[in-house]
Design goal:
By secondary structure, the protein is mainly β. It has strands spanning 26-28, 32-40, 52-60, 64-66. 0% of the residues lie in helices and 36% in strands. A hairpin with a 3-residue loop joins strand 1 and strand 2.
Length: 67
C-alpha cells in the first residue's frame, strides 16, 4: 500500500435502548410522542469520552422539545 492511500474500515452499527426514568412513555396517535433519550455532550472539551446526559423528548406535529 502506498503512503498516500488510506484504508477505510466500517464498524457495525450498535444501538442500545434502555429506560432512563421510571416515568411511563406516552403516545397519542398522530398528536404526541414522548420518551427518554441520552444526549451526547460533544460541545464540552477536555473529556476523553464526551459526557452523556439523560433527557426527555416530546415530539408533536410541529415541534421537537428536549429537556
Amino acid at each position: 500500500m502506498k503512503p498516500t492511500e488510506t484504508k477505510t474500515r466500517i464498524e457495525p452499527l450498535k444501538i442500545k435502548t434502555f429506560r432512563v426514568s421510571k416515568r411511563p412513555q406516552r403516545e397519542e396517535i398522530c398528536v404526541i410522542k414522548e420518551g427518554d433519550m441520552e444526549m451526547v455532550r460533544d460541545d464540552l472539551p477536555g473529556f476523553k469520552r464526551p459526557p452523556r446526559t439523560p433527557v426527555r423528548v416530546v415530539l408533536n406535529n410541529s415541534t421537537l422539545t428536549i429537556f
